[in-house]
Amino acid sequence: MTQLGLPVPPGFTLSTEVCTFFYQNQRAYPKQLETQVKKALTRMEKLMGRRFGHKKSPLLVSVRSGARASMPGMMDTVLNLGLNDETVEGLCQESGDVRFSYDSYRRFISMYSDVVLDVHSHHFEAALEELKSERGIDLDTDLTGEDLKLLVKRFKHIVRAEGKQFPEDPWEQLWGAIGAVFGSWMNTRAVTYRKLNDIPDHWGTAVNIQSMVFGNMGNDCATGVAFTRDPSTGERKFFGEFLMNAQGEDVVAGTRTPQPINSSSRHASTEKLQTLEEAMPRAYRDLVKVYQKLEKHYRDMQDIEFTIERGKLYMLQTRSGKRTAAASLRIAVDMVKERLISKEEAILRIRPEQLDQLLHPGLDPEAKKNVIAKGLPASPGAASGFAVFDPNTAEQWAAMGKKVILVRLETSPEDIHGMSVAQGILTARGGMTSHAAVVARGMGKSCVSGCSSIKVSEERREFTAGPHSIQEGDLITLDGSSGEVILGQVPTVSPALNQNFVELMKWVDEVRQLRVRTNADTPQDTRVARGFGAEGIGLCRTEHMFFDPSRIDAVRMMILADTSEGRRQALDQILPMQKGDFKEIFREMKGMPVTIRLLDPPLHEFIPHQDAELQILAQKIGVTLDRLKRKAESLHEFNPMLGHRGCRLGVSYPEIYRTQVRAILEAACELVRDEGFSIVPEIMIPLVGDWRELKFIREYCIEEIEEILDSFREDFKKQGIKKLQYLIGTMIEIPRAALTSAEIAKHASFFSFGTNDLTQTTFGLSRDDSASFLGDYINAKIYEKDPFATLDPLGVGRLMKLSINEGRTSRPDLKVGICGEHGGEPQSVIFCHSIGLDYVSCSPYRVPIAKLAAAQAAIQNPRAKKTQKKGIKPPARKRTQAKRKN
Amino acid sequence: MTQLGLPVPPGFTLSTEVCTFFYQNQRAYPKQLETQVKKALTRMEKLMGRRFGHKKSPLLVSVRSGARASMPGMMDTVLNLGLNDETVEGLCQESGDVRFSYDSYRRFISMYSDVVLDVHSHHFEAALEELKSERGIDLDTDLTGEDLKLLVKRFKHIVRAEGKQFPEDPWEQLWGAIGAVFGSWMNTRAVTYRKLNDIPDHWGTAVNIQSMVFGNMGNDCATGVAFTRDPSTGERKFFGEFLMNAQGEDVVAGTRTPQPINSSSRHASTEKLQTLEEAMPRAYRDLVKVYQKLEKHYRDMQDIEFTIERGKLYMLQTRSGKRTAAASLRIAVDMVKERLISKEEAILRIRPEQLDQLLHPGLDPEAKKNVIAKGLPASPGAASGFAVFDPNTAEQWAAMGKKVILVRLETSPEDIHGMSVAQGILTARGGMTSHAAVVARGMGKSCVSGCSSIKVSEERREFTAGPHSIQEGDLITLDGSSGEVILGQVPTVSPALNQNFVELMKWVDEVRQLRVRTNADTPQDTRVARGFGAEGIGLCRTEHMFFDPSRIDAVRMMILADTSEGRRQALDQILPMQKGDFKEIFREMKGMPVTIRLLDPPLHEFIPHQDAELQILAQKIGVTLDRLKRKAESLHEFNPMLGHRGCRLGVSYPEIYRTQVRAILEAACELVRDEGFSIVPEIMIPLVGDWRELKFIREYCIEEIEEILDSFREDFKKQGIKKLQYLIGTMIEIPRAALTSAEIAKHASFFSFGTNDLTQTTFGLSRDDSASFLGDYINAKIYEKDPFATLDPLGVGRLMKLSINEGRTSRPDLKVGICGEHGGEPQSVIFCHSIGLDYVSCSPYRVPIAKLAAAQAAIQNPRAKKTQKKGIKPPARKRTQAKRKN
Prior knowledge:
2 copies of one chain form a homodimer.
Chain A: E1 11-14, H1 16-24, H2 33-48, E2 61-67, E3 78-81, H3 87-95, H4 98-115, H5 121-135, H6 145-161, H7 170-184, H8 188-197, E4 205-211, E5 222-227, E6 239-244, H9 248-253, E7 259-260, H10 276-279, H11 281-298, E8 302-309, E9 312-320, H12 325-337, H13 343-349, H14 352-359, E10 362-363, E11 370-374, E12 376-379, E13 382-388, H15 391-399, E14 404-408, H16 416-421, E15 424-427, H17 435-443, E16 446-449, E17 454-457, E18 462-465, E19 468-471, E20 475-479, E21 484-487, E22 492-493, H18 499-511, E23 515-519, H19 523-531, E24 537-541, H20 543-546, H21 552-560, H22 564-589, E25 594-597, H23 611-621, H24 625-635, H25 647-652, H26 654-675, E26 682-685, H27 691-719, E27 727-732, H28 735-739, H29 741-744, E28 750-753, H30 755-763, H31 771-779, H32 793-810, E29 815-818, H33 826-834, E30 839-842, H34 847-860
Parallel strand pairs in A: 13-14, 14-15, 15-16, 23-24, 23-30, 24-25, 25-26, 26-27, 27-28, 28-29, 29-30
Antiparallel strand pairs in A: 1-4, 2-3, 2-4, 5-6, 5-8, 6-7, 8-9, 10-22, 11-21, 12-16, 13-20, 17-18, 18-19, 20-21
Helix pairs in contact in A: 3-4, 4-6, 5-6, 12-13, 13-18, 14-34, 18-34, 19-22, 21-22, 22-26, 26-27, 33-34
């Protein structure tokens, strides 16, 4: 700001390098620092015409932190430094204001003692309150200069009583404050804030030493904060508040109601207060000029702090202002229209995660809430409903029009029908990529998972959270964006996908090089995803279709059959139903690519666990309970994740995959023939670990497919339709598949990285079990991030890179995508862009997020290779850096 | 043999390249083949003075397979080819023997029709029997020439009745036979044999076409087989049998009792028969000269086939003879002493797996056995005992002096006490590396695992195998080398580790470059392993010590404690006991390196599963059953293999590892101080996946260690002992550890590959669950070998290579070993040698096997880098190729 010619009190900065040195050398400073500080202070003294520690005309300074990223309120600040029993008298004489001078002094003593000497501020607050009650007054401002002199004495007494010594020497004060500010980089608040906001610890903070200016020197003084645009809505209006005769901390403390700076900053409760524009028109006019200059200069909405000392405006701080997602979007789009920033810059301005706020309903921020537990924010959005503890009750109550929250120890595929009708899902176990979390995100439903502080008893239909006991039918609310579980119902607000969103996504589509598909298993999912601009389906799981109540019996008969023939018969019942599903999905995707994964989960997931259910099943399918139990037992596995699932089922029971392939191909052929669609089905074989596995399955699939294509040949010929094309590819989700990709690619038209399982196997870490100890890992700083949430570049990512490179040596046109949960996580999407994937696939509600991340990646690190998609312009070559300032 | 100047009937060979061409070109031949065959046959005609298909002096040939590796009896052969209705008459005139000629003809027709025309031989056998019964005779040799003429007619009739045409044209016969022999490379028998003997399918077979000589032309003719040394014992004596007036197939058919070739080949039942030496002394002398020449030439024991035609000896075949393990060893050692082969060659002569036969007791090969089921040959050796179904009964019965076989669905660490007293272990589930298999191999006990055809009911204390029901107390026998489960008791024979074994191992130790350590958890194991020449302990698991009945309660209290302090108290009880264990093991290893792995299994393994046991435990430790059950439930995991185990325990509960480290260090320090040992304990941290994990644990371990070393400082100083050295290293057993080895090596003094878990995670395959479908994989030829038995070089091996290379870039002196089950499997040991490991570690009984494999690897592919071990000579630089012939 100084360089812009704006009125800034003189000062200087100890850079972050000093902070780094400080922490690497047992809190010592570089040798030359002392000399440099002295020199800089001398320059300040000259500019201000005052001297540091001078009896008559003392220079007072503030000592503040200054980090690369804004960390509001997280670190320490000391104001009014330089005051002592002598200089305070100088200040009295100079200002002619004993009250102001001793007010500044007592503030300094308490702030300094708190921050530097570790004497807790409540001691000083208590003394202040005591004095006020002695004087019989309510407001601090009613204390006289003499009162404050007394208070200073009492404050100093407190410091001594706590065994500390308040330094009278301004230099000692200064070095104490510098040490404290550097030290505050590592205080608990700051560390936590950085963890939450992905700010690296090693960045360190700078320390700013600046001349004090005073907003508390009388009624021609003021201090305030303002935003250059509305941080809630993004509307282009100057917006802020101020206090007369006050220092910055008074605005924060909230003891006096701040006044609006102008009429457009007024709201109901400040309707009658005088504005800065009215009270100090000249200073206000200066402020307007400054804010316009600042916004133009930084080309972003600014959050500014100012002080007016005896009518003269001083700027204390400016930084890019925090804003809501909606404001973020509006400001970015408006600024492009105002030709302040380019489209690329606009794209880089929005944090992809922020879009989540716009895509899901949220809790009304004004509402009160009684939070009784906190779990993982597994699927965003807020939801209220009656607690139910099993999927059947969920379904019954929902059928009666009741909104329900499904509460489970953990969910399993058998719970799908209950999940699909619930408003939200709460589980005691499981992580960010547990079954509940994945399914809920896919459905765009609120979910709090791994809420280990609640004790769920499905049997007794209740859960407890501390002293609270919630029974079936009690109202609860989930905030899937924060992980909060709230007693009772909290009002929610709907998302508003406005014109700004549409505009931004248009620009995003122009620049990104990654295609974005969706993971969708049902026509409903597909519709939602299309609405969000998905360009195909990257993962259509077929097992969810098996759980449909109308089919599950046939599925179970298939599993319990002892012969290939018996399985075939049961599968014949499932075939027409699956074909129907596929037809609906193909219709919905209107010719866009659809990748269908053949059956993946271990068969025991389809068999009920409870005796009662087994009894019913035994009767239904006509076997003895004993036999059924034996079969169920024989399917039991110690580590089902590593068991008889995925393509291993396809090796043992080819008839299952044959039936699925038949359903897919018949669905496609019939649509092509009867409804004029153009479809290229992509069949995906899961859990491959060896090329022979893939070859074995691929060969019998092709045999089945060619038989079907033959049966349609005549019909196609009549209509002049060419033979249907299809692709057979594989998932790369176990390390050995990645390590042998050169061979596997010879038998696969495409790869799709299943990074959920690839993360599990590469880390040797079960996502369903890791919740219990992942906290220990984050605390010990072993993992910076949950590897199931953000793709691990060193292990999993390295395997992906190797797989792509070696796969493409065998098959240069190998199509490569990702369909794990990471496909919708911005940092992971950027990684996927960098290693040359063709597309990412994610749950419908994350499609816009993935698109935005992909666009940002393409702007910051454009790839040489053009995607084949038409209508996408080549990326801007110029590396447009986002200007991110505090 | 021809080149040696031995009497071999002239002939020529179609090489294996023709076989490869044949299978790559829909069973067609190279263009030039026909001309070449004609040319070769013309040369044979000249040498023999006969012509192929000639009416008067017909040349007859045999057509036989000839593969790179011997596959006795697996492929097809046609003898007497060239006979037809015309040439048989020529043969009659030439030989003057109608009986012989038509006998040859009828043999040819049946053999040819069976092999080439696919007319099953039982038709011909039936016709032969019928004729004999018509004539009222018993022996084939009693049939007259006229009878055989009639038989030839009937044989031809059979061929026509089966819709086939017997070709009269000798050339058509020849090409038919060639095609059949090539075709027999892919018959089921041959494919199975190759699978069992690790012979690659792509090798293919050659076809040998050779002039017939006749052992059945009268009583001056004979045919026989002989071994140049005794194939059972290896004794140096000429050993064989023969038949007068017979063709080779008669020896095999067993219709006549063969006679001994000399007196030293006689045994009880052949005591009275005339020897070849007696019957044809000249031919016998020739044969002796030939066998001596052959053995000297091939420098190995030969298995030879010969025919004597009218007093003249012809050699038909020679190949290295099959032999028992004991013979193998004796022959190799003897031949070195006879200066026939070098020590290196002797080493290469023994198949490492063969040693297994010598190290474990085996079933008496003479005994009858009633095999009722077959499982996996999980741990070699034979054992008989009474079936028991739980470890406690095993212990009680064993205490009463009864031999027991422990039968379980599967075993768990809680069963250890029962396993350790059992003669053998039989499980219905689990693979070659299941708990039962691994522990049994470690104990050198017989084990049959994954015996899925038996149904075990632990509750009813019985198992069924087909129609058999075996109750507690019934006698059964296991053959852990074949996987057989046998009803009743079968006598066993003990292993004999003789001087030959000791001699060979001495040579092995001289040449190998890999060190061989053992996996041993107890002083007993350690003693056994030392006896077999282990050079240290590569894996000492500490969890087995936790299961000791005297400690398990303290362990359980530790697990159930809610605070770090509570855990510490329980651990304090365990500390002195573990220290005692370590002392014993250190003493036993006498200063050799001992690598101790800190606690690895998930804690729930230590908690009982049954309500009754839980009830007892609850009372013992003074908590309610309900609380105990809740705790047990909270420890439950979906995929325990990927759960809260290994170093993850060390992250969550540092006090566990601290206690273990204390026990190790105090044990070492006390032995050094009190008993003059020199010990460098190696502490191994399991399941590391990230360097930060290792650093975190390593740091607190060092803190604990330095505290202990401080407490011994004074004592050491007094005795002039230097400060104890120690190493802290890690297991590499999950892919991410391998992929980030460069970073991990900075915090590890050594790596030890845990290839059991590394195989599980790299393949995404649970070894406990894969038994149920691994069969499908072997059948579909997807896996050639069980990856848990033989190290997978493409996936797991690639990760190992990468890990070593990158680990050593950070730490050039990184010590690297392997402690998975693969460390004792010869092919895997060879791989470990090739990628630069310093040592392998395996169960005690596999130490000699690993040493032998390591020596073979060093001979065939010596490494540049010398091992640091003293007393090991640098390897022979000369690449001595093993001469392996049929």
